[in-house]
TrEMBL record:
MF terms (GO), sorted A to Z: monooxygenase activity; oxidoreductase activity, acting on paired donors, with incorporation or reduction of molecular oxygen
UniProt keywords, alphabetically: Monooxygenase, Oxidoreductase
Record InterPro entries: Bact_Lucif_Oxidored (IPR050766), Biosynth_lucif-like_mOase_dom (IPR024011), Luciferase-like_dom (IPR011251), Luciferase-like_sf (IPR036661)
Protein's UniProt name: LLM class flavin-dependent oxidoreductase
Pfam family, one: Bac_luciferase
């Protein structure tokens, strides 16, 4: 099992949150991971909401990380490709690849929130189809192929993108929030998959991974060609109860910040869609209306994550989940560490995470490029 770091922190409108210190944890944790053999650093693409708001453009962030690291892979989790022109995607990430000496990777995602599509409103309904078209387009541009385009004078021209990347072939990832068909589609392309436990548990994921591997083979790829990375919220310490005290309130606050995003989505939700519900009939729609119900839902969510869907605990307690993920075919855990907003606390937790990592991935850091 390999381990990487994942970032998705919230931000605010306060003046205190507007300095470069907002990115201090990202930069210092990336250097820690780079020096200690972690596989990658993942950063997301988010727009128009404090939840994940530090990361509107993962290529810019990855370019900064390229300057302070020498080994670790620099990944976007994800690039919401329907929000972009494929030429810009190829150009920006080729720059990251050049700056990093060939360490750039990114997962394509189709997007989900209608507000994000102010860039290309017409793409929202068919966003998944747009994503798959763009995968082929970006791969071709990355490989140096030309593309027809219409210039400002209305003439059709042939263009190639520059600079040329270090890697001849773009490492391809696709993000799936538990959708089995998305994972099969990734397998048909020979792509790796970034997923999570937001809409699935380990047992459900096991079946999807088995189908993914079978689809890889039937599509002409080696069964082990693609990788499965699972994002898990992570804090590892020495004492289980102390870890619980450290993480519970910040974790619930972090989950609550995601409800503001869902609240914005609720008025435009698909008619007839069934809202998620916790035991006892606590539904998402009800939680968005009633703060008391929201608190019950958040407490339930924390209990679920604590028990079986996050690396929150000690190396011993978290090791059980790591072993179970290994058994079902997960290759990498992408550890989301910045749900807690205290710099010293999170950096201290990296030492515990390193001890957990060394139990399952004792290999030294790869050679610097």
């Amino acid at each position: 099992m390999e381990f990487s770091l994942f970032f998705f922190s919230s931000c605010s409108d306060s003046q205190d949150d507007r300095s470069s210190n907002s990115y201090r944890l990202l930069l210092d944790a990336a250097k820690f991971a780079d020096e200690r053999g972690f596989r990658a650093v993942w950063t997301p693409e988010r727009h128009f909401n404090p939840f994940g708001g530090l990361f509107p453009n993962p290529s810019v962030v990855s370019a900064a990380l390229a300057m302070i690291t020498s080994r670790i892979r620099l990944r976007a989790g994800s690039v919401v490709s329907p929000l972009h022109h494929p030429i810009r995607i190829a150009e920006e990430w080729a720059v990251v690849d050049r700056l990093s000496g060939g360490r750039a990777e990114f997962a394509f995602a189709s997007g989900w929130h209608s507000d994000d599509f102010v860039f290309y409103p017409e793409r929202y309904e068919d966003r998944s189809a747009h994503m798959y078209e763009q995968i082929a387009q970006v791969q071709a541009l990355w490989a140096g192929q030309s593309r027809k385009a219409t210039n400002g004078a209305g003439r059709e021209i042939e263009i190639r993108t520059y600079p040329r990347p270090v890697q001849n072939r773009l490492p391809l990832w696709i993000t799936s929030n538990g959708n089995a068909e998305t994972m099969k589609s990734a397998a048909r392309l020979g792509a790796s998959v970034l997923t999570n436990f937001i809409g699935q548990d380990a047992e459900e994921l096991a079946g999807k991974i088995a189908d993914y591997r079978e689809t890889l083979e039937s599509s002409g790829f080696p069964r082990g060609a693609g990788r499965i990375a699972v994002m898990l919220h992570t804090f590892v310490g020495d004492d289980l109860e102390r870890v619980r005290r450290i993480v519970k309130a910040p974790f619930i606050d972090y989950l609550a910040s995601s409800l503001t995003l869902l609240r914005k989505l609720a008025p435009s939700a698909t008619p007839g869609a069934t809202p998620g519900a916790a035991p006892g009939g606590i539904g998402l729609e009800e939680a968005l209306r009633d703060p008391a119900v929201a608190r019950k839902l958040l407490d339930f969510a924390f209990a679920r994550y604590w028990q079986s869907a996050a690396l929150l605990g000690t190396p011993d307690s978290c090791g059980e989940l790591v072993r179970s993920l290994e058994e079902i075919g997960v290759d990498e855990i992408a550890c989301l560490i910045d749900f807690h907003d205290d710099y010293e606390t999170v950096m201290g937790g990296l030492e515990g995470l390193l001890r957990l990592k060394e139990r399952f991935d004792p290999s030294p850091a790869p050679a610097a490029r």
